[in-house]
Amino acid sequence: MTNIAIFASGTGSNARKIIDYFEGSENVKIRLIVSNKQTAKVLDIAKEKDIPSLVINRTEFYQSENILEKFSIYEVNFVVLAGFLLLIPEYLVTAFPQRMINIHPALLPKYGGKGMFGMNVHKAVYEAQEKTSGITIHYVNNAYDEGGIIFQTECELKEQDQPEDIARKVQALEHHYFPKVIEQLVLQKDYSS
Ligand code: GRF
Fold first, then answer.
1. Bridge partner list, 20
2. What confidence score (pLDDT) does residue 192 get?
3. Which residue has the CA at smallest separation from atom 7 of ligand 1?
4. Which residues pair with 113 in a beta bridge?
5. Hey, whose CA ends up nearest to atom 6 of ligand 1?
6. What does the pLDDT read at residue 114?
7. Which portions of the chain are predicted below pLDDT 50?
8. Does ligand 1 have an atom closer than 6 angstroms to the CB of 137?
9. S-S: 21 plus which of 91, 121, 169, 179, CB 3.0-4.6 Å?
10. Does ligand 1 come within 6 angstroms of the Cβ of 107?
11. d(C-alpha 180, C-alpha 193), whole Å
């Protein structure tokens, strides 16, 4: 079984899609939801879906490795970042080599890096008058948005598209592809040990 921990700081719409997609799966179980925000909507989803959740404190996250103990309790062997805004500390990257992925709402390497999240990304794409945007799913290393790219797909942008329209188009891609890409990875490689 691939036991996934999903990290999210926000609304968790991607987390919900992933949870729904793997409900009843024989290969994948969402074992834990991790957030750094007590009020994150993703925690309500965890409750609704009866999935254990963990709220982490930023200082503790960086200064101790306590989260690894939690991971071993839930036998977590794969990590998915879905709108998690803190940089992942080195010990965690090292503990999950090629087993931690992130989704970014643009076509990296453009529009990535510190501060490039949420509407900041879509506004930058809009201001640059790009004809396309899209999503990037990539492995996580210890720099923002720089790990090896696993999957990208594009959407066309129209001249009249505002940042909100771009966000909507990109989100539709995220919801459609993120669970499927996770499934593909899990089918290609055995993460269960
Ligand atoms: C997504 O756009 C994702 O690409 C980015 O954070 C956002 C999370 O959105 N990393 P949601 O909380 O899943 O709705």
1. none
2. 84
3. 83
4. none
5. 83
6. 85
7. none
8. no
9. 179
10. no
11. 22
CA distance linking residue 146 with residue 59, whole number of Å: 24
108 lines ligand 1 (CB under 6 A): no
Q: In this structure, how many other beta carbons lie within 10 angstroms of the beta carbon of residue 68?
A: 13
Q: Which atom of ligand 1 is nearest to 171's Cα?
A: 2
Catalytic machinery residues = 104
Establish whether residue 46 lines the binding site of ligand 1, counting it when its CB lies within 6 angstroms of any ligand atom. no
78-to-16, 28, 64, 131, 144 alpha-carbon distances in Å: 17, 10, 20, 35, 19
Of 36, 89, 91, which Cα lies nearest the Cα of 58?
Answer: 36
The reported pLDDT for the residue numbered 70 is 95
Neighbouring residues of 146: CB distance < 8 A, sequence distance ≥ 6:
109, 112, 138
Measured in Å, residue 109 CA sits from the centre of ligand 1 at: 17
Name the residue with the closest Cα to ligand 1, atom 1.
83
pTM listed for this prediction: 0.96
The tokens describing 41, both together, are 């909507």
Tokens of 156: 């066309």
Cβ of 105 below 6 Å from ligand 1:
yes
The CATH number of 2-104+137-149+174-187 is which of 3.40.830.10, 3.90.1300.10, 3.40.1180.10, 3.40.50.170? 3.40.50.170
Token output for 150:
């696993």
